[in-house]
Amino acid sequence: MNITLIGMAGAGKSYIGKALAKKYGFRFIDIDSVIEQNSGKKLKNVVSELGDRKFIKLEQKTVLALKKPEGAVISPGGSIIYSGQAMKFLLKLGPVIFLKVPFSVIEKRVPDFEERGLIRFSHTSLKSLYGERLPLYKKYSHATVSIPSGLGVKEAVCKVYMAARKKAKTLDLVCRTRVDSQR
What we know:
- By secondary structure, the protein is α/β, with parallel strands linked by helices.
- The chain contains 9 helices and 5 strands, in the order βαβαααβαβααβαα.
- The protein has a 5-stranded parallel sheet, with helices on both faces.
């Protein structure tokens, strides 16, 4: 089984994803880190050099190059939802979980909107970007997991894993024995 985590920058995709992978014996794949490694540049520099539309194509290409991993927690950038092709691919790999975090928390975690290296298109505020993306995260996810302020990482990992397992059964996916034995 693979689990993909989607959501805004600051939602905790990497933080929760790493903890989830460690707890259940999955590999962790951070798409932003793969892009940085492949380019030899910081993500914000790649975004700045390519521009929004070309960066989305690069992000899509990076996701599609995953082939068909098995036993991975995948954390794409928050802008992955702008690529229908990449999202269809991720939806076929296994449960896609939207980490829904209140805007007030995102705002605290992403204090410098201009410096983060976000795909913004014409948005001049984090709030307007959040508003645009929210329905796309819902559209492209199998399940939504609410991550309220103050929820610990252990609880978040548990919520995400349970949502993924439930969806995996619905999708008729078979979980690895190693994962099952750690429940």
